[in-house]
């Protein structure tokens, strides 16, 4: 866009909606988010999501919950009149649909190659092969059971290269995957969710780290929620912080190595740094 509209509306409160709403609001546009649910980022820890949503509301972003857009008209001045299913009507300058996306494999005539397609992805086996054994699908178009993220796409691409080169015939195995939303604060999570951990009878530690010098010096309202299994190994972590995408990486390593607290405390980290308090996170 050559110019930033004065008023912007996003339909959908997932990754893209929350991140771009944060951007437009930060640069001065009046920003609205419309979502059919009662909350945002449903795949994330809702305790942390509520903290983020409160901060976004306080910064001026308007939320419209339990609503969908049923009509958009243009008035005589060129502004858009948006009507919601709950009866709300408002004017805005631009509307963006951020309610999800799919890959453009529907434009590739894959049926001619005997590749089966679903609505959102291409079904694959444990080696990421499609129904045509000579064709693989990775990343956003692949039907693997992992989040569609840059790191997972890269990981799958490297794996397929190894398969094609004859360097492995083992099924793909995924390490724990960090997922991050870059809002006004960043939310990151990896491994088992808090809800799943409690269902399994695991211990959940909930910590407000805002007064710890590492974060206090930046006036950062940090909260960390960690899931520990019966052996006191970290199996899941959730973080909200200005640099949650860095903090979560410490948990990724700990989960993949099945570290206990004692094993974590055997390492020394630079102080003060994001990792210097890692041994106190569980």
What can you tell me about this protein's structure?
The protein has 282 residues and is of the alpha/beta class. The protein is 24% helix and 22% strand. It is built from seven helices and twelve strands. It has helices at 15-26, 46-58, 150-164, 194-199, 213-216, 244-256, 261-265; strands at 7-11, 30-34, 62-64, 69-74, 80-84, 89-92, 94-97, 179-182, 186-191, 203-208, 223-228, 234-241. A five-stranded antiparallel beta sheet has the order 8-9-12-11-10, with helices on both faces. The longest helix is centred in the middle third of the chain and has 15 residues, at 150-164. It is flat. The termini are far apart.
Tell me the strand percentage band: 15-25%
The whole-angstrom Rg is 22 Å
The total of beta strands comes to: 12
Strand order of the largest sheet: 8-9-12-11-10
Supply the number of helical segments: 7
Overall outline: flat
Low-confidence segments, given as residue ranges, are none
Secondary-structure content class: alpha/beta
H-E order = EHEHEEEEEHEEHEHEEHH
Fraction in helix: 10-25%
Our measurement of the CA-to-CA distance between the termini, rounded to an integer number of angstroms, reads 46 Å
Largest sheet: 5 strands, antiparallel
What is the average of the pLDDT values?
Answer: 95
